[in-house]
Amino acid sequence: MRLSNKNAIITGGAGSIGSVVAKRYLEEGANVLIVDRDQKAIDSTLNELDGQGDNLTGLKIDVTSEESIRDTVQKATKIFKNGKIDILANIAGIGPFAKFPELKVEDWDKTLSVNLRGTFITSKYVVENMIENGGGVIVNMSSTNGLLAEEGLAAYNASKAGVILLSKTMALELAKYKIRVNSVCPGFIRTKLQDSAGLPKDMIDNYISKIPLGRLGTPLDVANVFVYLASDESAFITGTEIVVDGGQICQE
Ligand SMILES: NC(=O)c1ccc[n+]([C@@H]2O[C@H](COP(=O)([O-])OP(=O)(O)OC[C@H]3O[C@@H](n4cnc5c(N)ncnc54)[C@H](O)[C@@H]3O)[C@@H](O)[C@H]2O)c1
User: 204-212 long-range CB contacts below 8 Å, 24 or more apart?
Assistant: First the structure.
């Protein structure tokens, strides 16, 4: 019970990785509010995680909208009995594929708006609550694409690199309020979404051949790091990132 009685908001909490983070946070004793733009996915996540107690709630949010974020954070302070937000996991994200010069300005704007601007604005409103209540923890979803470039993902790569430096700056500015901020950089994580997209076997084998640990990551591999960074076990860790990629990017 490493998150006993902590109140956590998870953006993108109805997604492949976010829903597993929600499950792990519940298992560790947290009260969890999953927020996501996809109401159907919220409902099925709530259903799937049913039986974990009455400490799980879902709300629709659009992290590209400041008003939607402000409204959700306000509702969160009513949902959590003591009004405190102890943990924010910013996981909502998108990654449309297009190469130069075809990459459209609107796709660039949308990607930066969800992945980077959304992380900033959600953090901004949650931090107000954390300062009032004497501290908290923010864990932001970046990617190995925030550290190294991958073709066809210029907007995504730039947004995830932005998340890393946003997190470091927040860590510096918020340490005095006892707020820690870190990011997580997963490599290729095998999700239901990718399975249903039917990625060709040779493409998956090619990926695996670049991973020293010889397999793709799982949502649970990532969720366990979100637990660690949200818990007091990481009390002296702020302003850094943890790579979860089976060793893929530690080599030439
Ligand atoms: N799957 C991977 O291999 C991988 C690797 C590295 C990083 N990531 C990052 O992990 C996060 C989750 O990825 P996933 O694979 O679980 O994808 P996913 O599509 O299953 O989950 C993303 C969630 O974000 C939500 N979302 C999208 N736009 C939103 C908005 N405007 N407002 C609120 N919610 C919104 C979606 O509805 C979805 O539930 C993303 O940030 C992604 O970039 C994934």
Answer: 210/248, 211/187, 211/245, 211/246, 211/247, 211/248, 212/246, 212/247, 212/248, 212/250, 212/251
